[in-house]
Amino acid sequence: MDEKSIRNIGIMAHIDAGKTTTTERILYYTGENHRIGEVDNGEATMDWMQQEQDRGITITSAATTCYWRDHQINIIDTPGHVDFTAEVERSLRVLDGAVGVFCAVGGVEPQTETVWRQADKYDIPRIAFVNKMDRLGADFFEVLTEMEKKLSEHPVPLYIPVGSESAFSGIIDLMSMEYLTFDPADDGKTITRSSIPESEKDRAEEWREKLIDSASSFSDEIMELYFAGEDIPREMIIAALRTATLERRCLPVFVGSSLKNIGVQTLLDGIVALLPSPVEAKPMETINAKNGKTEELTHNVNGPLEALIFKIQVDPQAGPMCFVRVYSGVLKKGIALYNITKGKKERVNRLLRMHADRSEELSELKAGDIGVIIGFRLAQTGDTIGQENHPFLLEKMQFPNPVISIAIEPKSTAEQDKLHKALETLAMEDPTFTYKDNAETGQLIISGMGELHLDVLVTRITKEMKIDARVGNPQVSYRECIRSEASGTEEFSRTIAGKENNATLSLTVRPLPPKSGNSLRITANTRDIPEEIVEAITNGINGAFQGGIRYGYECTDIEAEVTDIKYDENTSTPFAFTSCAAMAFDRIASEAGPVLMQPVMKVQASAPSEYIGDVISSLTQRGGIVLSMESKPGADLVTAEAPLEKMFGYTTVLRSATQGRGTFSMEFSHYAEKNQ
After folding, report:
1. pTM score, two decimals?
2. Neighbour tally for 282: CB within 10 Å
3. pLDDT grade, residue 566 (50/70/90)?
4. Of 68, 403, 546, 577, which one has the fewest beta carbons inside 10 Å?
5. Could you give phi then psi for residue 180, rounded to 5 degrees?
6. CA dist 401 to 428, 477, 572, 624, Å?
7. Which CATH code fits 284-394?
């Protein structure tokens, strides 16, 4: 298929906005599914993991391909829960366009804002679908206002609803000024176009006027026709809005109810008409692996091969399934490819195109397309695949550090190897999941982004992978920092196997502002010092950052500056400098007022207004500081910051305080000093 006819899109939303239901309808109308799967009864195609069906949420971003009006649509289904931020991030990285699904009752909800900000980072053109118009409290026009206020968008509705809640009957096409109804007898496949009901004519005229006004600001041609009082063709409106969408100057809005099969085909038309093809997507920035210089990579089928592994799913039979987006060139089955990130070659045994839970064999993947490589053993999420003579890396994805940990141990030694293999698999699939052995306690510690994230991972280990293991209670992942600046000089001298190993260096450590991370600077004169010595110092200090100062936790927000290096070519060895650097950091940082830092979370809790006092009280009792409050129809929203260690089990507390009607989301904000 011509790359101009490809659309690589993601569907993103707050949890429970109806994202997966919308995707199911898209697959049904495009002929991928012969019947409609529902989230409520655990039959959703995109939620293929057992836990996704049990919990009714999307955890992994399954990639699926479908076809509509001679266009190929590759859909990446992204999670709405902030604990799975890595899934969202890695999906957005490979998209050319996205559909934001909004609940007509909830409007712009907290996690929508989070995902929207992530999409802003990659400058992804978007369209919006206001869903659940049949729900009690649905208000399409209020959602438009929230899009302007909270997302700083310029929403332009192409359709408006007729009625709402139980009276929601169809939509008005503002481009053709027709009333569209969807036949429930064939699940909404048959669309009937008729004249606009008398009661809706004034509103339709008002919004048609707004649509033309917006379109004319993007097109001089439309403006001339408008002032001349002439008819403006639909194609011209679409062309103007497409240009504005690609430039991120407007947000076209569609409306409907996925559950009631209303408005999904018009959304499909919008995906094809308004979102970019790979050819129109912005050029990628690549980094030369040899000299670090950046270079722009434009979409080119005839160019050198450049592809990004954006996701790995380990299949029990096939092994690692590497989901890949090809940016340039052609990726062919059976050839050996160069993993530029790892500096290793691997063979492509098979190429697949995924259709949710089934697959189709391919012989090649061209630039702009998305598929799956089978046969890679060393690859990880974020690796660049290409050619050895063209070693350009696609920019690395940055994932946040895990903030919550639990101990896990196998119930028998026979399970030990199985557990380690399972953890390797999970770490390969999910970059925000880490595990390590605690040297002091001998326990195996696994870490993740939140309680739900770890709960899902533990359930996968025990239920899906059938490993008999004991699991501890969640623990906070603390960090260490320093209060002041300190400097000193460290000498290392040891004779090993008759050979002298000497090193001397001077070091200054100082605290950095929150969220800075650690930094190492070598300002000493290194002109006459071998590269392996500089590398040894770097390794020593980076290792010391990991090992902590006083409490054994990883350091954060510390700058280490190496100000002087004394090198003797006869006795100085890399081993001596690695040890010397680590000892220097440990001693000097201990003199700089080491403090324990705890993760502070941004908490957003929502509940009906009569319970909001109890919600605020429940947060302040946990050391929370309320930052803002906002009244919304049906529920008030409280934004606060609270230490993670006090937030364990908050779900139960909130439910009992609000008679089950409160919800909350939490994401990492920053580290702050813990009161001892």
Report:
1. 0.70
2. 15
3. very high
4. 546
5. -105, 125
6. 16, 9, 36, 22
7. 2.40.30.10
